[in-house]
Specification:
Elements (H helix, E strand, L loop, with lengths): L7 E5 L4 H12 L3 E6 L2 H12 L5 E5 L5 H15 L4 E4 L14 H29 L2 E6 L16 H21 L4 E8 L5 H4 L6 H10 L12 H8 L10 E4 L7
Parallel strand pairs: 1-2, 1-4, 2-3, 4-5, 5-6, 6-7
Organism: Ethanoligenens harbinense (strain DSM 18485 / JCM 12961 / CGMCC 1.5033 / YUAN-3)
GO molecular function, one term: oxidoreductase activity, acting on the CH-OH group of donors, NAD or NADP as acceptor
Protein name: Short-chain dehydrogenase/reductase SDR
């Protein structure tokens, strides 16, 4: 049920971290994968690694906050693979700060990447999926779409807002696109080690100790632990799952 042979998957934010891991997981299940990100050199490294295993991967440079860049990237994928069956919107940024300290530029940057980027990718991919009457869209939200931090050192108001918006967009698209054979779901990871967190949250011993004490799993998520949920929502195993936020959080949202 998780097998993806013959499918084409597009992954944004695929140059490193969870996005790159997801691209590898898709390829292992037989999908042809198109990796999108701004950093072409890092994309090329991941693509070369995948292709060495006799899988199919291409690197496409793309700034998801720029409409012309997104349109060109989608056109490039279609020219190479002719269709798009799966879209994983993984690209995102986390900017710390409260409404009192954030600048308008920081707000626009976070919303532009985390929300506008998903909107633009879907704007150009959904018509392809509607035409073929099949599609799987998976949006990476966050547990911080439904949880927030009281500690002023951990306040991330624009991150909370943007990830909540991702969930709202997911629900809206799911309701109207289901009739075309397209499912749209979101994943809400808690703390995972990635390029974005390795040099920030994972270097704050006091924060990690508090997180581990609170989380029922007593630890952050490990690399690869998001791949199963991603494959579930991207495959026919979830054929009747639509408009859902699946929290992958070690249980931290229940305490």
């Amino acid at each position: 049920m998780f097998e993806l042979s013959g499918k084409v998957a597009v992954i944004t934010g695929a140059s490193s971290g969870l996005g790159a891991d997801a691209a590898r997981a898709y390829a292992e299940q037989g999908a042809k994968v198109a990796l999108l990100a701004r950093r072409k050199d890092k994309l090329d490294n991941v693509v070369a690694e995948i292709n060495r295993t006799r899988k199919h991967a291409i690197a496409v440079q793309c700034d998801i906050a720029d409409e012309s860049s997104v349109q060109a990237a989608v056109d490039e994928v279609l020219e190479r693979y002719h269709t798009i069956d799966i879209l994983l919107n993984d690209a995102g940024i986390a900017i710390p700060g409260s409404v009192e300290t954030l600048t308008a530029e920081q707000w626009d940057l976070a919303m532009g990447t985390n929300v506008k980027g998903i909107f633009l990718m879907c704007k150009y991919v959904v018509p392809v999926m509607k035409k073929q009457k099949y599609g799987k869209i998976v949006n990476i939200a966050s547990v911080n779409a439904v949880l927030a931090d009281k500690d002023p050192r951990m306040v991330r108001h624009v991150y909370n807002a943007s990830k909540s918006a991702v969930v709202g967009l997911t629900v809206g698209m799911a309701a109207s696109l289901g009739q075309f054979g397209i499912t749209v779901n979101a994943l809400g990871p808690a703390l995972f080690e990635s390029e974005m967190t390795a040099n920030t949250l994972f270097k704050q011993e006091q924060f990690l100790n508090a997180y581990n004490a609170l989380c029922p799993a007593s630890r952050p998520g490990r690399r690869g632990e998001l791949n199963g949920p991603i494959l579930f929502l991207s495959s026919d195993a979830s054929s009747y799952v639509n408009g859902q936020l699946l929290l992958v959080d070690g249980g931290i949202s229940i305490v």
